[in-house]
Amino acid sequence: MPKDRVLVTGGAGYIGSHTVIELINNGYEIIIVDNLSNSSPDVIPKLKEITGKMVSFVNLDIRNKLALQTFFKRTERIESVIHFAALKSVNESVEQPLAYYENNIQGTINLLEAMLENKVNSLVFSSSCTVYGSPDHLPVTEMSPLGHTPSPYGYSKQVCERLIHDTVHAHPELSAISLRYFNPIGAHKSGLIGEVPSGPPNNLMPYITQTAAGVREILSVYGDDYNTPDGTAIRDYIHVSDLAAAHVSALSRLQSSDKPSGVEYFNIGTGKGSTVMEVIRSFEKASGRPLDYKVVGRRDGDIEAIYADASKSKEILKWSAQYDLDDMTASAWTWEKNYRGIN
Ligand code: NAD
Ligand code: WQD
Known about the structure:
This protein is an alpha/beta fold. It contains eleven helices and 13 strands. It has helices at about 15-25, 45-50, 65-75, 90-95, 95-115, 150-170, 205-210, 240-255, 275-285, 310-315, 325-340; strands at about 5-10, 30-35, 55-60, 80-85, 120-130, 175-180, 185, 220, 235, 235-240, 260-270, 275, 295. The strands form four sheets. It has a seven-stranded parallel beta sheet, sandwiched between helices. The protein has a two-stranded parallel sheet with strand order 7-10. Helix 6 links the parallel strand 5 and strand 6 (about 175-180). Helix 1 (about 15-25) runs parallel beside helix 2. Bound molecules: nicotinamide-adenine-dinucleotide (NAD) and UDP-4-deoxy-4-formamido-beta-L-arabinopyranose (WQD). UDP-4-deoxy-4-formamido-beta-L-arabinopyranose binds near residues 202, 207, 220, 222 and 233.
Protein backbone atom coordinates (compact mmCIF):
# COMPACT_ATOMS: atom_id res chain seq x y z
CA MET A 1 0.00 0.00 0.00
CA PRO A 2 1.70 3.26 -1.09
CA LYS A 3 1.88 6.23 1.25
CA ASP A 4 0.20 9.46 0.22
CA ARG A 5 0.26 10.70 -3.31
CA VAL A 6 2.32 13.89 -3.41
CA LEU A 7 2.03 16.58 -6.06
CA VAL A 8 5.48 18.03 -6.77
CA THR A 9 5.30 21.34 -8.65
CA GLY A 10 8.62 22.07 -10.38
CA GLY A 11 9.60 18.43 -9.87
CA ALA A 12 11.64 18.29 -13.10
CA GLY A 13 13.98 21.01 -11.80
CA TYR A 14 17.23 20.74 -9.87
CA ILE A 15 15.97 20.40 -6.29
CA GLY A 16 12.59 18.93 -7.26
CA SER A 17 14.12 16.01 -9.18
CA HIS A 18 16.41 15.10 -6.26
CA THR A 19 13.45 15.30 -3.90
CA VAL A 20 11.34 13.02 -6.11
CA ILE A 21 14.00 10.30 -5.65
CA GLU A 22 13.91 10.63 -1.85
CA LEU A 23 10.11 10.58 -1.83
CA ILE A 24 9.89 7.47 -3.99
CA ASN A 25 12.59 5.76 -1.93
CA ASN A 26 10.46 6.49 1.13
CA GLY A 27 7.34 4.91 -0.32
CA TYR A 28 5.51 7.98 -1.61
CA GLU A 29 3.68 7.98 -4.89
CA ILE A 30 4.44 11.19 -6.71
CA ILE A 31 3.11 13.22 -9.59
CA ILE A 32 5.22 15.97 -11.12
CA VAL A 33 3.70 19.12 -12.57
CA ASP A 34 6.20 21.27 -14.45
CA ASN A 35 6.08 23.56 -17.50
CA LEU A 36 9.74 22.72 -18.32
CA SER A 37 10.57 26.45 -18.49
CA ASN A 38 13.85 25.72 -16.71
CA SER A 39 14.21 21.95 -17.00
CA SER A 40 14.29 19.16 -19.54
CA PRO A 41 11.88 16.26 -20.10
CA ASP A 42 15.00 14.02 -20.18
CA VAL A 43 15.05 14.07 -16.40
CA ILE A 44 11.87 11.94 -16.17
CA PRO A 45 13.38 8.72 -17.62
CA LYS A 46 16.46 9.33 -15.45
CA LEU A 47 14.25 9.37 -12.36
CA LYS A 48 12.73 6.06 -13.45
CA GLU A 49 16.21 4.62 -14.00
CA ILE A 50 17.38 5.71 -10.54
CA THR A 51 14.30 4.65 -8.58
CA GLY A 52 13.05 1.73 -10.66
CA LYS A 53 9.55 3.21 -10.34
CA MET A 54 7.13 4.91 -12.71
CA VAL A 55 7.18 8.69 -12.42
CA SER A 56 4.01 10.52 -13.43
CA PHE A 57 4.63 13.78 -15.22
CA VAL A 58 2.17 16.43 -16.39
CA ASN A 59 3.37 19.36 -18.50
CA LEU A 60 1.39 22.21 -16.99
CA ASP A 61 2.01 25.87 -16.20
CA ILE A 62 0.73 26.76 -12.74
CA ARG A 63 0.06 30.31 -13.94
CA ASN A 64 -2.79 28.75 -15.95
CA LYS A 65 -5.46 28.74 -13.27
CA LEU A 66 -8.04 26.85 -15.28
CA ALA A 67 -5.61 24.12 -16.32
CA LEU A 68 -4.45 23.75 -12.71
CA GLN A 69 -8.04 23.55 -11.39
CA THR A 70 -8.87 20.92 -14.03
CA PHE A 71 -5.76 18.94 -13.15
CA PHE A 72 -6.73 18.87 -9.44
CA LYS A 73 -10.30 17.84 -10.25
CA ARG A 74 -9.16 15.00 -12.50
CA THR A 75 -6.39 13.70 -10.26
CA GLU A 76 -7.49 11.55 -7.38
CA ARG A 77 -5.96 11.12 -3.99
CA ILE A 78 -3.54 14.06 -3.87
CA GLU A 79 -2.78 14.34 -0.16
CA SER A 80 0.08 16.84 -0.11
CA VAL A 81 1.85 19.34 -2.30
CA ILE A 82 5.52 20.26 -2.41
CA HIS A 83 5.78 23.56 -4.21
CA PHE A 84 9.12 24.10 -5.98
CA ALA A 85 7.84 25.72 -9.19
CA ALA A 86 9.31 29.21 -9.40
CA LEU A 87 11.75 31.30 -11.38
CA LYS A 88 14.95 31.61 -9.38
CA SER A 89 17.52 33.87 -11.02
CA VAL A 90 18.28 36.91 -8.87
CA ASN A 91 19.75 38.91 -11.81
CA GLU A 92 16.98 38.03 -14.23
CA SER A 93 14.39 39.05 -11.65
CA VAL A 94 15.87 42.56 -11.53
CA GLU A 95 15.51 42.80 -15.32
CA GLN A 96 12.06 41.17 -15.49
CA PRO A 97 10.31 41.89 -12.18
CA LEU A 98 6.78 41.38 -13.49
CA ALA A 99 7.59 37.98 -14.96
CA TYR A 100 8.95 36.95 -11.54
CA TYR A 101 6.01 38.32 -9.60
CA GLU A 102 3.53 36.71 -11.98
CA ASN A 103 5.22 33.33 -11.98
CA ASN A 104 6.17 33.05 -8.33
CA ILE A 105 3.31 34.91 -6.64
CA GLN A 106 0.38 34.33 -9.02
CA GLY A 107 1.51 30.71 -9.42
CA THR A 108 1.40 30.24 -5.64
CA ILE A 109 -2.01 31.93 -5.37
CA ASN A 110 -3.41 29.63 -8.07
CA LEU A 111 -1.99 26.61 -6.27
CA LEU A 112 -3.44 27.60 -2.89
CA GLU A 113 -6.85 28.22 -4.45
CA ALA A 114 -6.81 24.84 -6.16
CA MET A 115 -5.72 23.13 -2.93
CA LEU A 116 -8.52 24.77 -0.93
CA GLU A 117 -11.14 23.98 -3.53
CA ASN A 118 -10.08 20.34 -3.69
CA LYS A 119 -9.49 19.88 0.04
CA VAL A 120 -5.78 19.18 -0.28
CA ASN A 121 -4.53 20.33 3.09
CA SER A 122 -0.75 19.83 3.35
CA LEU A 123 1.84 22.09 1.77
CA VAL A 124 5.64 22.24 1.83
CA PHE A 125 6.95 25.48 0.36
CA SER A 126 10.43 26.09 -1.10
CA SER A 127 11.63 29.21 0.62
CA SER A 128 15.11 30.60 0.84
CA CYS A 129 17.61 32.07 3.28
CA THR A 130 17.32 35.13 1.06
CA VAL A 131 14.26 36.11 3.16
CA TYR A 132 16.66 37.08 5.99
CA GLY A 133 18.34 39.73 3.82
CA SER A 134 21.68 40.75 5.30
CA PRO A 135 21.46 39.44 8.87
CA ASP A 136 22.80 41.38 11.88
CA HIS A 137 23.46 38.24 13.92
CA LEU A 138 24.87 34.87 12.89
CA PRO A 139 23.90 32.11 12.72
CA VAL A 140 20.37 32.97 11.63
CA THR A 141 17.55 31.24 13.44
CA GLU A 142 13.97 30.98 12.24
CA MET A 143 13.21 33.80 14.72
CA SER A 144 15.70 36.15 13.04
CA PRO A 145 13.88 39.08 11.49
CA LEU A 146 13.14 39.03 7.77
CA GLY A 147 15.42 41.54 6.08
CA HIS A 148 15.48 43.79 3.05
CA THR A 149 15.63 41.70 -0.12
CA PRO A 150 16.84 43.93 -2.96
CA SER A 151 15.81 41.57 -5.78
CA PRO A 152 12.25 40.87 -6.96
CA TYR A 153 13.15 37.17 -6.66
CA GLY A 154 13.95 37.52 -2.94
CA TYR A 155 10.90 39.67 -2.35
CA SER A 156 8.68 37.11 -4.13
CA LYS A 157 9.79 34.51 -1.53
CA GLN A 158 8.86 36.85 1.33
CA VAL A 159 5.48 37.58 -0.27
CA CYS A 160 4.78 33.87 -0.83
CA GLU A 161 5.62 33.08 2.79
CA ARG A 162 3.20 35.81 3.86
CA LEU A 163 0.41 34.75 1.56
CA ILE A 164 0.75 31.14 2.69
CA HIS A 165 0.68 32.34 6.30
CA ASP A 166 -2.47 34.43 5.75
CA THR A 167 -4.23 31.66 3.81
CA VAL A 168 -3.47 29.07 6.49
CA HIS A 169 -4.67 31.51 9.15
CA ALA A 170 -7.98 31.97 7.33
CA HIS A 171 -8.33 28.24 6.56
CA PRO A 172 -7.09 26.29 9.59
CA GLU A 173 -7.70 22.97 7.84
CA LEU A 174 -4.63 23.85 5.76
CA SER A 175 -1.24 23.07 7.27
CA ALA A 176 2.06 24.27 5.86
CA ILE A 177 5.81 24.10 6.32
CA SER A 178 8.17 26.60 4.78
CA LEU A 179 11.69 25.27 4.27
CA ARG A 180 14.27 28.02 4.04
CA TYR A 181 17.06 26.53 1.96
CA PHE A 182 20.56 27.89 2.32
CA ASN A 183 22.88 27.27 -0.68
CA PRO A 184 22.09 23.93 -2.35
CA ILE A 185 24.92 22.45 -4.42
CA GLY A 186 26.07 19.01 -5.60
CA ALA A 187 24.23 16.20 -7.30
CA HIS A 188 22.75 12.74 -6.81
CA LYS A 189 25.32 9.99 -6.24
CA SER A 190 24.27 8.21 -9.47
CA GLY A 191 25.69 11.12 -11.50
CA LEU A 192 22.56 10.88 -13.67
CA ILE A 193 20.89 14.13 -12.60
CA GLY A 194 22.22 17.48 -11.44
CA GLU A 195 22.08 21.20 -11.94
CA VAL A 196 21.85 22.47 -15.54
CA PRO A 197 21.93 26.27 -15.54
CA SER A 198 20.62 27.96 -18.66
CA GLY A 199 23.37 30.25 -19.96
CA PRO A 200 26.33 31.38 -17.87
CA PRO A 201 25.73 30.35 -14.25
CA ASN A 202 25.14 33.06 -11.64
CA ASN A 203 25.90 30.68 -8.79
CA LEU A 204 29.31 29.68 -7.54
CA MET A 205 29.27 25.87 -7.78
CA PRO A 206 28.14 25.47 -11.41
CA TYR A 207 30.53 28.26 -12.42
CA ILE A 208 33.37 26.32 -10.81
CA THR A 209 32.49 23.01 -12.47
CA GLN A 210 31.93 24.64 -15.87
CA THR A 211 35.30 26.41 -15.60
CA ALA A 212 37.02 23.12 -14.80
CA ALA A 213 35.18 21.50 -17.72
CA GLY A 214 36.48 24.19 -20.06
CA VAL A 215 33.04 25.68 -20.75
CA ARG A 216 34.00 28.94 -18.96
CA GLU A 217 37.41 30.51 -19.16
CA ILE A 218 37.98 31.59 -15.58
CA LEU A 219 36.03 31.95 -12.33
CA SER A 220 35.71 35.48 -10.96
CA VAL A 221 35.87 35.51 -7.18
CA TYR A 222 33.68 38.41 -6.13
CA GLY A 223 35.69 40.22 -3.48
CA ASP A 224 38.42 39.21 -1.03
CA ASP A 225 38.10 42.19 1.27
CA TYR A 226 35.22 40.93 3.42
CA ASN A 227 35.64 40.64 7.16
CA THR A 228 36.09 36.85 7.03
CA PRO A 229 39.15 34.63 7.69
CA ASP A 230 40.36 34.72 4.05
CA GLY A 231 38.45 37.82 2.93
CA THR A 232 35.95 35.96 0.71
CA ALA A 233 32.23 35.74 1.49
CA ILE A 234 30.70 33.02 3.63
CA ARG A 235 27.67 30.84 2.79
CA ASP A 236 26.10 27.68 4.19
CA TYR A 237 26.37 25.16 1.33
CA ILE A 238 24.06 22.16 1.61
CA HIS A 239 24.14 18.96 -0.44
CA VAL A 240 21.05 18.80 -2.64
CA SER A 241 20.40 15.18 -1.55
CA ASP A 242 20.40 16.30 2.10
CA LEU A 243 18.02 19.07 1.15
CA ALA A 244 15.83 16.53 -0.67
CA ALA A 245 15.69 14.36 2.47
CA ALA A 246 14.44 17.36 4.47
CA HIS A 247 11.25 17.30 2.39
CA VAL A 248 10.52 13.73 3.44
CA SER A 249 10.90 14.84 7.07
CA ALA A 250 8.64 17.84 6.42
CA LEU A 251 5.91 15.61 4.98
CA SER A 252 6.11 13.32 8.02
CA ARG A 253 5.81 16.36 10.26
CA LEU A 254 2.72 17.57 8.39
CA GLN A 255 1.11 14.18 8.93
CA SER A 256 1.98 13.93 12.61
CA SER A 257 -0.44 14.90 15.34
CA ASP A 258 2.38 16.89 17.03
CA LYS A 259 2.33 19.54 14.33
CA PRO A 260 0.68 22.70 15.64
CA SER A 261 -1.76 24.43 13.32
CA GLY A 262 -0.45 27.17 11.05
CA VAL A 263 2.85 27.47 9.24
CA GLU A 264 6.14 26.20 10.61
CA TYR A 265 9.46 27.57 9.31
CA PHE A 266 12.71 25.60 9.19
CA ASN A 267 16.25 26.49 8.18
CA ILE A 268 17.73 23.83 5.92
CA GLY A 269 21.49 24.22 6.05
CA THR A 270 24.48 22.49 7.60
CA GLY A 271 25.01 25.18 10.23
CA LYS A 272 28.56 25.64 8.96
CA GLY A 273 29.72 28.56 6.85
CA SER A 274 32.36 28.15 4.12
CA THR A 275 34.22 30.89 2.27
CA VAL A 276 34.44 31.04 -1.52
CA MET A 277 38.13 30.06 -1.28
CA GLU A 278 37.24 27.04 0.86
CA VAL A 279 34.80 25.89 -1.82
CA ILE A 280 37.47 26.33 -4.50
CA ARG A 281 40.05 24.38 -2.45
CA SER A 282 37.55 21.60 -1.76
CA PHE A 283 36.71 21.40 -5.47
CA GLU A 284 40.42 21.25 -6.41
CA LYS A 285 40.89 18.39 -3.96
CA ALA A 286 37.85 16.51 -5.27
CA SER A 287 38.71 16.96 -8.93
CA GLY A 288 42.47 16.68 -8.59
CA ARG A 289 42.93 19.69 -10.83
CA PRO A 290 43.75 23.34 -10.17
CA LEU A 291 41.01 25.85 -10.93
CA ASP A 292 41.60 29.04 -12.91
CA TYR A 293 40.26 31.96 -10.92
CA LYS A 294 40.89 35.65 -10.41
CA VAL A 295 39.75 37.95 -7.65
CA VAL A 296 37.58 40.82 -8.87
CA GLY A 297 35.44 43.43 -7.09
CA ARG A 298 32.45 42.58 -4.91
CA ARG A 299 29.22 41.66 -6.68
CA ASP A 300 26.39 44.17 -6.25
CA GLY A 301 23.86 43.08 -3.64
CA ASP A 302 26.08 40.35 -2.15
CA ILE A 303 26.16 39.96 1.60
CA GLU A 304 29.29 39.23 3.61
CA ALA A 305 28.21 36.13 5.47
CA ILE A 306 25.19 33.98 6.21
CA TYR A 307 24.83 30.54 7.70
CA ALA A 308 22.06 28.68 9.46
CA ASP A 309 21.29 27.71 12.96
CA ALA A 310 19.80 24.36 11.92
CA SER A 311 18.98 23.14 15.44
CA LYS A 312 15.21 23.57 15.06
CA SER A 313 15.22 21.24 12.03
CA LYS A 314 17.28 18.72 13.97
CA GLU A 315 15.04 18.81 17.00
CA ILE A 316 11.62 18.93 15.35
CA LEU A 317 12.06 17.50 11.85
CA LYS A 318 14.66 14.99 13.09
CA TRP A 319 16.69 16.05 10.06
CA SER A 320 20.30 17.09 9.78
CA ALA A 321 22.82 17.24 6.97
CA GLN A 322 24.87 14.07 6.36
CA TYR A 323 27.25 15.28 3.66
CA ASP A 324 30.20 17.66 4.02
CA LEU A 325 31.63 20.22 1.61
CA ASP A 326 34.02 17.70 0.01
CA ASP A 327 31.09 15.36 -0.73
CA MET A 328 29.21 18.26 -2.29
CA THR A 329 32.01 19.46 -4.57
CA ALA A 330 32.94 15.87 -5.57
CA SER A 331 29.35 15.06 -6.56
CA ALA A 332 29.00 18.35 -8.47
CA TRP A 333 32.13 17.45 -10.45
CA THR A 334 30.96 13.88 -11.15
CA TRP A 335 27.72 15.29 -12.55
CA GLU A 336 29.45 17.95 -14.68
CA LYS A 337 31.81 15.33 -16.14
CA ASN A 338 28.94 12.96 -16.97
CA TYR A 339 26.88 15.76 -18.47
CA ARG A 340 29.78 16.94 -20.67
CA GLY A 341 31.03 13.45 -21.49
CA ILE A 342 34.41 14.09 -19.81
CA ASN A 343 36.36 11.06 -18.51
P1 NAD B 1 14.79 24.97 -11.00
O1 NAD B 1 14.61 26.12 -11.93
O2 NAD B 1 15.79 23.94 -11.36
O3 NAD B 1 13.39 24.24 -10.75
C1 NAD B 1 12.16 24.93 -10.79
C2 NAD B 1 11.23 24.13 -11.69
O4 NAD B 1 9.96 24.80 -11.73
C3 NAD B 1 11.73 24.05 -13.14
O5 NAD B 1 11.69 22.71 -13.57
C4 NAD B 1 10.74 24.91 -13.92
O6 NAD B 1 10.56 24.45 -15.23
C5 NAD B 1 9.49 24.81 -13.06
N1 NAD B 1 8.59 25.97 -13.18
C6 NAD B 1 8.89 27.29 -13.08
N2 NAD B 1 7.78 28.02 -13.24
C7 NAD B 1 6.76 27.15 -13.46
C8 NAD B 1 5.37 27.30 -13.71
N3 NAD B 1 4.82 28.53 -13.82
N4 NAD B 1 4.61 26.21 -13.88
C9 NAD B 1 5.16 24.97 -13.78
N5 NAD B 1 6.47 24.77 -13.55
C10 NAD B 1 7.25 25.85 -13.40
O7 NAD B 1 15.11 25.59 -9.56
P2 NAD B 1 15.59 24.85 -8.24
O8 NAD B 1 16.96 25.30 -7.95
O9 NAD B 1 15.26 23.42 -8.30
O10 NAD B 1 14.65 25.58 -7.18
C11 NAD B 1 13.43 25.00 -6.74
C12 NAD B 1 12.79 25.91 -5.73
O11 NAD B 1 13.68 26.15 -4.65
C13 NAD B 1 12.43 27.30 -6.27
O12 NAD B 1 11.21 27.69 -5.67
C14 NAD B 1 13.55 28.16 -5.79
O13 NAD B 1 13.16 29.51 -5.65
C15 NAD B 1 13.85 27.55 -4.44
N6 NAD B 1 15.21 27.79 -3.96
C16 NAD B 1 16.28 27.46 -4.77
C17 NAD B 1 17.56 27.71 -4.31
C18 NAD B 1 18.75 27.42 -5.18
O14 NAD B 1 19.83 27.97 -4.91
N7 NAD B 1 18.66 26.58 -6.18
C19 NAD B 1 17.76 28.25 -3.04
C20 NAD B 1 16.65 28.55 -2.25
C21 NAD B 1 15.37 28.31 -2.73
C1 WQD C 1 27.86 32.27 -3.40
C2 WQD C 1 29.15 33.03 -3.13
C3 WQD C 1 29.35 35.05 -4.40
C4 WQD C 1 29.60 33.26 -8.33
C5 WQD C 1 21.95 32.94 -4.39
C6 WQD C 1 20.65 33.67 -4.28
C7 WQD C 1 19.87 33.20 -3.10
C8 WQD C 1 19.72 31.68 -3.09
C9 WQD C 1 21.02 30.99 -3.30
C10 WQD C 1 17.65 31.04 -4.10
C11 WQD C 1 28.93 34.55 -3.02
C12 WQD C 1 30.42 34.07 -4.79
C13 WQD C 1 29.49 33.45 -6.97
C14 WQD C 1 30.82 33.55 -8.97
C15 WQD C 1 31.75 34.15 -6.84
N1 WQD C 1 18.89 31.21 -4.15
N2 WQD C 1 30.56 33.90 -6.25
N3 WQD C 1 31.87 33.98 -8.20
O1 WQD C 1 24.58 34.73 -3.78
O2 WQD C 1 24.62 33.20 -1.76
O3 WQD C 1 22.70 33.17 -3.22
O4 WQD C 1 21.67 31.53 -4.46
O5 WQD C 1 16.87 31.32 -3.22
O6 WQD C 1 18.63 33.83 -3.16
O7 WQD C 1 20.94 35.06 -4.14
O8 WQD C 1 24.82 32.21 -4.05
O9 WQD C 1 26.17 30.79 -5.52
O10 WQD C 1 25.52 33.09 -6.32
O11 WQD C 1 27.20 32.87 -4.51
O12 WQD C 1 32.74 34.57 -6.20
O13 WQD C 1 30.98 33.43 -10.20
O14 WQD C 1 30.03 32.85 -4.25
O15 WQD C 1 29.85 36.36 -4.38
O16 WQD C 1 29.81 35.02 -2.06
P1 WQD C 1 24.23 33.44 -3.17
P2 WQD C 1 25.90 32.20 -5.20
